[in-house]
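Q: What does the assembly look like in three dimensions?
Context provided by user:
Components: two
Sequences:
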Amino acid sequence: MSFFDAFVQGFALVAQWESLAFLALGIAIGVVAGAIPGMSATMAVALTLPFTFAMQPITGILLLLGVYKGGIFGGSIPAILIKTPGTPASSATALDGYPMAEQGKAGKALSMALYASCIADFVSNLALILVAGWLAAFALNFGPPEFFTLIVFSLTIIAGVSGDSLLKGAVAALFGLLLATVGMDFIGGTNRFTFGSPDMMAGLNFIAVLIGLFALPEIFSHIRNPKEREGNVRKLGDSHLTREEFRGSLKSILRGSAIGVFMGSIPGIGAAPSAFLSYSEARRASPNRENFGKGEIEGVAAAEAGNNGVAGATLIPLLSLGIPGDVITAIIIGAFMIHGLTPGPLLFTNHADLVYALFIGLIASSVLLLFIGWFAVRGFRYVADIPSNLLFPSVLVLCIFGVFAINNSIFDVGVMLVMGLLGYAMLLLKFPAAPFLIAFILGPLLEDKFRQSMLMSRGELDIFVRGPITIIFWCLTVISVVLIVRSTMAAARIRRQQRRTSMPPRTGTNG
Amino acid sequence: MKTPMMIMGLATATIALAGAVAAEYPERPIQMVIPYGPGGVSDLSARALAGPLGQIVPQPLVLTNRAGAGGAIGSVSVRDADADGYTLLFARVGTHTVNPAMNPNLPYTVDEFRFIAIYELNPVACVVDAGSDIHTIDDLIERVKGNPGEVAFSHPGAGTLPYLGGLMVLDAFGVADPLDNVIDIPTESDAASLTAVLQQTTEFFCGSTSSAAGFVANGQMRPLLVTSPEPVVGFDAPTVADLGKPELQALVGWTGIAGPAGLSDEVVEKWAGWLVEAVKDAEFRGFMDAGGSVVNLMSPDESVAFIESAYQNFRRLVLELDLEL
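A: Here is the predicted structure of the complete assembly.
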């Protein structure tokens, strides 16, 4: 079958109302599911899977892909409105999205999240179609030592999200690393800090920690200080973005998309580190660096571009090698298998029509996401209008239900509440939550990849410089550390000078 | 369609409670715990069976994923549930033979469960990367013996079938002290173990045919042997019996249904009857075939005997090779 024949047949498969309708339905389901705290994109895809068994292969797979893409964007809605990331990947969005909502700019933040998501999604899909082969070969070169150096480099993100004090950020990160060790270590099979409890053996659930750390402290501080917000009624604000705002963020969106494509094509990383890396790179390059973390629209754009940029790229190892890159693609592979399709090199020869149909469907999904997201933004932003004394209790109830539903475990709810207290203490003491979270995500990867590499080399450390990829990441790490040290020292110098001239310290409220 | 059934189920349950008469089992929905996360082989197998089973069992089946700690959390939750037949477990080779044989600190034992059935067997295959110069199991053994401590295999963690599988195969083919003579690299999942083989981080993987089937079909990997008595469709490799090692047939994955130890005979018999009907379903069988699994329904007694013999086989190897965690 020639390329043209396959393309035409693929087009015929997609250009049926069922295909597009199910794709749109999937996106709508994903957006709504992603917007419910505790209901992650992963769960939404898993719950949709059984419904695809009876469908045509192409409609079933498009439905799942729709849920996936919608879910990743949908997670940004509660992250912005109520500081409750619907999916782990949107926790970076909350860093600037929530302060924007506090300032009455929820509409703008949501619109920017949508545009950034759609553009990144589109770039990611293009990468899948145009350079999948090349990126898949690259992914195959990414063994444990390469992975380890990438994670070491990614840990430098912590400096970018530490806020005013690098020291406090580092302390929070160490705490995150410590809590990430709880549970059964799969390399040695030993139990760590489990105190004999089977529940602890699974470790602390990631979503429970996430919600506890981000959403609950907001609720607690509202309970303690209900008056504080009463005078300050939050407004939806205008959801229209000015041309300048969009143009100012475009570079970050494109950079975030590229980071997403790169991280997504490597199996096993996922969208959350990509979102944080994109956010931290945007902050480093932005003239408004001071305003990041305080309601900077470019931060929302970068975070959303970083996590949606992953969505198309995770299909690269899936389709070209048959490797599921994350939990969601592992579920989607199930949908292929059910229909007797085996993702991998032969799929392109045996079912080229299906592959092209998927490609066309994916491109359509970016456009559909823009439309469905537009309605979702208009629908959900009224959440910002709900008086806090109704909103916060409802959020608490949703969080408890959502966290319980992950594993039907009351233990996870307990973890969330304890993490909420910890998060509140951190808020009072001005310790930033994001470094904690990044360390909690990356810590286990760092350890596992280190130990796998050590097993491979039987203890020889030179495995960590075994090829060009490892060396590139070491160089990048050194460059970032030097930059961090320089900017920290510069900031300290400015602060000293300010003190000497007895000026009040800058509060950093740009604009 | 599901919701009206649920509502009907709830309504019946309410009426039954109100009447307070000892009606026949089951009089309310049955919770079935899957001790692994959604989308994995265990989850898919359970959900595929629940399709036809749901048509036969007079009450709704509520499938619940309780993942974590290699299936221990879901298993413990069923062990601790009331033995009334309303909480059952999809037990797997990992949760109920390999892990108990290896890990004396596991928070449960096999005796704390009553087995209703085994309905699925997954033969094990050993695979290498298609570009590798290892073409037969003898090539592999020669390589290991010629380069002690150089050859690596990947597996999804100690206490899993592919971990024991790799060592058991080497042991059977005469590699002394396999733990010292090969490198074993634990990964996050079966898929990650197979990725490691593709990346040539490791040389081989011995795990269930269903996880390797895609890579073999695509010509990315080459099978060296399968542990089933009959050749496996799509796997162009000799069986262990052909290779003169029939004892390796013990190396096989399975999925079954179990409840807490105190489950009554009435419940077990009911389920045995329902399962005989459910496994006849053509759609279920088609799904299992596509995934490289063999539908093999065993009676409650056969299941217990099968699990006991598998456990003893693994336990002997664990003691022999000193693999206890």
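Follow-up: Residues 3-465 of chain A form one domain.
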